């Protein structure tokens, strides 16, 4: 019987769902345990703080939750532990690099460049660690551009810029990392040492991403892959805005004139390349080509699955629409079991 470790956070939450349990958006861990028991696995649930890294973890599957806490301090600690488990030979699901990319668009874009180089090249994506690096950069590609903070959900902090001046103004505010005390000390040093060789300390060190804005799209698609199941919805842009994420304007049946099978083919290609049992994909279509805007492989929203009345699965080379009232814990566990037994 295969042992599998399930790591929850300090509030005993695990992943997230569209419903709440005891006031928390979490999967029902007891139901997850029962599903794994029924599949012949031996689940062991513990909080991160109870993890003993001195034990033999080699080859043991580990499912773990992430965090979107303000400042990502708790997530940073989770990353330390997951990386240590992976180094000890544990089979972390997904691998550490996808945890690092969760709530971190800079890492996500780095993975995109490696896994989908043509996609990255089409978007002319850049990442910067300081405002000054952007100021010195010679950007290529058409305008307008989109600027995104590394962390944030629902398009928080995302802005468009029609020229370099607008982009620099947006970046200056978005990348601010200093405090009033730090700013005062730095400006004082610059005044005192202006006649000497002084290398100013940057006060704008919040990392961010800049890429081309794909014009002419009224919305995008959210596709969740959970094992062999694909769930889709169409998100319309916010009124008078280019952003669909965070709009809340969902349609589970409208494909905005886009061929459903072509969308599923593209989602399958992307998720196969990611090689994880779970994936959340934000996909756009410009009338000719599909574009992968963002992806996550853990701790993503599950509205697309839970509010859907059906899913799609490939059978004998063709896509089949299967009616379903989604039991998110059962679907999650089945995806993991199939992944472990593949």
TrEMBL record:
Q: Which organism is it from?
A: Micromonospora ureilytica
| Phylogenetic lineage | Bacteria, Bacillati, Actinomycetota, Actinomycetes, Micromonosporales
Q: What is this protein called?
A: ATP-grasp domain-containing protein
């Amino acid at each position: 019987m295969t042992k599998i470790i399930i790591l929850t956070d300090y509030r005993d939450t695990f992943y997230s769902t569209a419903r709440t349990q005891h006031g928390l958006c979490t999967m029902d861990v007891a139901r997850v345990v029962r599903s794994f028991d029924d599949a012949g696995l031996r689940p062991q649930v513990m909080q991160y703080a109870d993890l003993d890294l001195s034990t033999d973890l080699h080859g043991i599957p580990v499912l773990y939750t992430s965090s979107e806490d303000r400042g990502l301090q708790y997530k940073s600690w989770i990353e330390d532990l997951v990386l240590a488990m992976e180094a000890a030979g544990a089979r972390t699901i997904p691998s550490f690099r996808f945890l690092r990319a969760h709530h971190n668009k800079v890492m996500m874009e780095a993975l995109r460049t490696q896994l989908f180089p043509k996609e990255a090249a089409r978007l002319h994506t850049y990442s910067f660690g300081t405002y000054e690096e952007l100021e010195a950069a010679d950007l290529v590609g058409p305008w307008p551009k989109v600027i995104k903070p590394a962390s944030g959900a629902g398009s928080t902090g995302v802005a468009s810029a029609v020229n370099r001046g607008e982009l620099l103004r947006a970046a200056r505010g978005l990348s601010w990392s200093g405090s009033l005390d730090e700013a005062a000390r730095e400006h004082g040093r610059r005044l005192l040492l202006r006649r000497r060789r002084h290398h100013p300390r940057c006060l704008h060190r919040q990392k961010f991403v800049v890429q081309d804005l794909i014009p002419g799209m009224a919305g995008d698609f959210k596709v969740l892959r959970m094992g062999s199941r694909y769930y889709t919805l169409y998100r319309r842009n916010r009124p008078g805005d280019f952003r669909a994420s965070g709009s809340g304007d969902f349609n589970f049946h409208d494909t905005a004139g886009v061929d459903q099978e072509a969308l599923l083919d593209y989602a399958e290609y992307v998720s196969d390349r990611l090689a994880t049992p779970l994936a959340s994909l934000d996909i756009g279509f410009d009338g000719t080509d599909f574009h992968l805007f963002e992806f996550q492989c853990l701790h993503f929203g599950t509205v697309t699955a839970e509010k859907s009345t059906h899913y799609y699965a490939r059978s004998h080379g063709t896509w089949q629409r299967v009616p379903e009232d989604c039991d998110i814990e059962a679907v999650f566990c089945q995806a993991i079991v199939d992944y472990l037994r593949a």
